Amino acid sequence: MATAKLMDFDKALEMFEPVLGFEVHVELNTRTKMFSDAPNPANDEFHGAEPNTLIAPVDLGLPGSLPVVNATAVRSSISLGLALGCSIAESSRFARKNYFYPDLGKNYQISQYDEPIAFEGSVEVELEDGTLVTIPVERAHMEEDAGKLTHMGGATGRIQGAEYSLVDYNRAGVPLVEIVTKPIFGAEHRAPEYAKAYIAAIRDIVRGLGISEARLERGNLRCDANVSLRPRGQEKLGTRTETKNVNSMRSVERAVRYEIQRQAAILADGGTIIQETRHWHEDTGTTSPGRPKSDADDYRYFPEPDLLPVQPSRELVDELRAALPEQPVARRRRLKADWGFTDLEFQDVRNGGLIDEVEATIAAGAAPAAARKWWTGEITRIANAQDRDAAGLVSPSDVAALQGLVDAGTLTDKLARQVLEGVIAGEGSPQQVVDSRGLAVVSDDGALIAAIDDALAAQPDVLAKIKDGKVQAAGAVIGAVMKAMKGQADAARVRELVLERAAQ
Amino acid sequence: MLARIQLSDDEVTQLTGQLDAIVDNIAKVSEVATPDVVATSHPIAMSNVFRPDEVGETLTLEQTLKNAPDAADGRFRVTAILGEEQ
Amino acid sequence: MSDIIRLTAAELGEKISAGEISSVEATQAHLDRIAAVDGDVHAFLHVNEHALAAAAEVDARRAAGEQLGPIAGVPLAVKDVLVTTDMPSTSGSKILEGYMSPFDATVVARSRAAGLVPLGKTNMDEFAMGSSTEFSAYGPTRNPWDLDRIPGGSGGGSAAAVAAFEAPLALGSDTGGSIRQPAHVTGTVGIKPTYGGVSRYGAIALASSLDQVGPVTRTVLDAGLLHDVIGGHDPKDSTSLPQEWPSFAAAAREGASGQVLKGLKVGVITELPDSGFQAGVAASFRASLALMEAQGAEIVEISAPHFEYGVAAYYLILPAEASSNLAKFDSVRFGLRVTPDGNPTVEDVMSATREAGFGPEVKRRIILGTYALSAGYYDAYYGSAQKVRTLIQQDFARAFGQVDVIATPSAPTTAFKIGEKIDDPLQMYLNDLTTIPANLAGVPGISIPSGVAAEDGLPVGIQFLAPAHEDARLYRVGAALEAALLDSWGEPLLARAPQLLGGTR
Ligand SMILES: [Mg+2]
Ligand SMILES: [Zn+2]
């Protein structure tokens, strides 16, 4: 495919105002599917099942099968709507969205159309520097996921050039909530950052509610990013493109930046933007054209006759509202104050996605500063080196236990880093690693004194300097002793003893 | 075509004539369907019919694939797909 | 002809229960009858090879001392719209030829649990689209009263099976009259329950908001006995009503005593004048009303001004819902697959399959429905039709403020000749004129034989309609009129049908 012409990002922003919009699909982690009692693969317990083994008749659209709504999925959807600041509809209904595609068992998707469960809300989103922006939400509606296609025989596993495709309907019927924003204005040069921060905010909210496993890499959260540009000073919105299924926060940031640069180049050349879906390519960092919007997009929506309206009672909505966890932004404000972190220190933790980990480490007994240092320092360094997420690399309780060993003087910081590596390598708890690797500090003065005497004897000039009162010369001896002890000594104690012996 | 039925020319001609007559006939519904009349989608009004979130019996893979015109590797097999996911 | 097959289900159930006849004998008698006459009638698409084994099992359960229901051991014919695990389910379509469901329809499962013995699957218009069973992909069913005539539709197979004494009981489905209109033309009894009164789970959907499963029998009591077995709440169907229902068999027995006609207010619709019906149909209808009046009923003229829009609304709602319900027949997961030459895409395969697998009436309605739902037409067509539904419900509400039941002829004409209307869809659609309003409004309806038309000697039915949830009222009134008519005739109407000897085709 030909590479698109791109305009410099800053120049694009000089000429055009970007307008954003997002559609995020959240897979709920209920035990069963939206409309059938088959296990839900978006629940950790059933994730990774063999193809076509999580199937009830309605998931295949078998003749005579009928959908029945999952009560828990409705509750989760209402909770999510409330967390998004939405109004909950007094009456909401399902509709059929009709289109033929082999991943749809019935060749229609049960979704919501004119009467969504939640509407008119907003999400407070925090940018990297702590700036708060409000993203307006148009609606959140319930629907079902489609099955999964695997394209075979083509070179790339892509749909183009494939000889045939295989269909697995395990994912068909997974409960989804689709969150649709209103057009987002004013993002300007921070548009890519808005995108990333919005997805992070949605992830934090659904995690906080416990209604989704919220793993982007598994597709539990999937984002369609709409981007349009309009010349400075123009009122009318430009034509938008919809980049589909961008499934990581970094990608959504890059995709928005790319679309701004691509569209700007076309518009500056006097071209027009085609309203179309586009595909994001992680490898090349580009988007490619997909399906143009056309008359064929006539989904022939009509009220789903097999299902009845959802009319949540006031009591239910009040109950779910009362049970909402603290809003992520408010929670962050509280934690920052409790922990006594500076702005920069807290941003470090948040941007690393490590708030939960630090909180749990502190709860397990570590001091806030120590917890922060471990997570944003050594653990993040190892995670980056291994190309993994810091969160989840090691348990907060192990980190707290490790710091406990440092506080007790059992480990030096340097030894503790070695123990951490052992824990991450799966060698057991910090104490088990200390025991098995024999890494504890040598606190036996006899052994230390023997090593000091050896070192002093080997460096008579240094001994003379110390005796002359040049105490800083002791460093060379201390270094030699630490080396002899393979680092397993408390440097401060060694220093005390060196000065003591030298004085004799 | 939205109905995804390939029709012969003869069929198209015949159907067009019949459908025109039928559509003319049924257009009479708009005579009485004034804006003040609410639409009824379900003959008996009910709401909030839900199922507990409990796992039931699933189909075995054999049952799932039993009627499949073509299958491979535990999945349904179809020829190349032209269109895109929605 | 064996006497066993002439028994009603109630009588047969009693004899089986008393040990006079075994279920195996009863089943064998009906299988013999099918073997003898179904070559002519073609009511069945499939005869159950496990029927005798199922009957033997019921006999064994009884022998083991199990308390079984009143119709345990009685054979049952099952409309092919209902999915079954032990027999193919095709809904009368080539696109589902040989399809084996991994589950039973709820009504089939309940029938089995009650000891009924599935005899086979009955013929129908493809996907229940039709009023004559001529649109079955497997050839037409013939009316036992005259083998050159239609048995009604879409459930012509179930009605013909019962009328031809091939089965005492059958299951049908009624979207716009598919139980009641065949009952009318075959001299049998058919009930469309209140929408949601009987589970739709396992009924291959035609129009989900109109479809109802119901009994097809020779007597009102038999219908009540079968309704008692299949009815009631089913959590697998969200539109299933949660309420407790009275015994419909008990209601029929109560009605047969005749007392219920005293003071009963029977509404007759002004907008359905006799001139709209074949003369013999109107005459039979009026005779029945007179008989009811003689027994103390009061005939009241009522107005239902929106009934005349029913057919138009129906032919928007039904195709719209059907176009969506039938989208699943795409050759991917089940059913027919037709692969064109060359390197066809899945889109090509789907289109070719649906072209080859659907008959002309099905295509006609899918295309009509697709059109009625498309953007730009929705409000004028589908949206307006849903409003007509509201208006018809209001007509019913007003009428039932004045009367206990409404009576109409069950259909405009007696059975017409096979082929007579097949090329005139509009004319065909008018067959359901009197039955459609009940489906649009969700109210229950019953058709019972009222006599024969003088001009052709063919059976005629009378339809009663009651408010939603008042199915029991229909059993009482139907059984009361049935008893009065039987008295006046001295024998069941079906006794006048010609003897079928078999072997003419
Ligand atoms: Mg979308
Ligand atoms: Zn969606």
Automatic annotation (TrEMBL), chain A:
InterPro entries to which the protein is assigned, alphabetical: Asn/Gln-tRNA_amidoTrfase_suB/E, Asn/Gln-tRNA_Trfase_suB/E_cat, Asn/Gln_amidotransferase, Asn/Gln_tRNA_amidoTrase-B-like, GatB, GatB_Yqey_C_2, Gln-tRNA_amidoTrfase_suB_CS, Gln_synth/guanido_kin_cat_dom
Superkingdom of the source species: Bacteria
PROSITE patterns to which the protein is assigned, alphabetical: GATB
Official protein name in the record: Aspartyl/glutamyl-tRNA(Asn/Gln) amidotransferase subunit B
EC number: 6.3.5.-
Keyword Oxidoreductase among UniProt keywords: no
Stretches assigned to the Asn/Gln amidotransferase domain: 356-502
Purpose: Allows the formation of correctly charged Asn-tRNA(Asn) or Gln-tRNA(Gln) through the transamidation of misacylated Asp-tRNA(Asn) or Glu-tRNA(Gln) in organisms which lack either or both of asparaginyl-tRNA or glutaminyl-tRNA synthetases. The reaction takes place in the presence of glutamine and ATP through an activated phospho-Asp-tRNA(Asn) or phospho-Glu-tRNA(Gln).
Source organism per UniProt: Microbacterium commune
UniProt xrefs under HAMAP family: GatB
Subunit note: Heterotrimer of A, B and C subunits.
Automatic annotation (TrEMBL), chain C:
Active site: K79, S154, S178
SUPFAM superfamilies associated with the record: Amidase signature (AS) enzymes
Coiled-coil intervals: none
InterPro entries: Amidase, Amidase_CS, Amidase_dom, AS_sf, GatA
Catalytic activity, EC: 6.3.5.7
Keyword rRNA processing: no
Keywords, sorted A to Z: ATP-binding, Ligase, Nucleotide-binding, Protein biosynthesis
Catalytic activity reported: L-glutamyl-tRNA(Gln) + L-glutamine + ATP + H2O = L-glutaminyl-tRNA(Gln) + L-glutamate + ADP + phosphate + H(+)
Top-rank EC class of the record's enzyme: ligase
Pfam families, A to Z: Amidase
UniProt KW ATP-binding keyword: yes
GO MF, any single term: glutaminyl-tRNA synthase (glutamine-hydrolyzing) activity
Domain Amidase: 25-474
Subunit and partners: Heterotrimer of A, B and C subunits.
Protein's job: Allows the formation of correctly charged Gln-tRNA(Gln) through the transamidation of misacylated Glu-tRNA(Gln) in organisms which lack glutaminyl-tRNA synthetase. The reaction takes place in the presence of glutamine and ATP through an activated gamma-phospho-Glu-tRNA(Gln).
Listed HAMAP family: GatA (MF_00120)
NCBIfam families membership: gatA (TIGR00132)
Similarity comment text for this entry: Belongs to the amidase family. GatA subfamily.
Name of the protein in its database record: Glutamyl-tRNA(Gln) amidotransferase subunit A
Gene: gatA
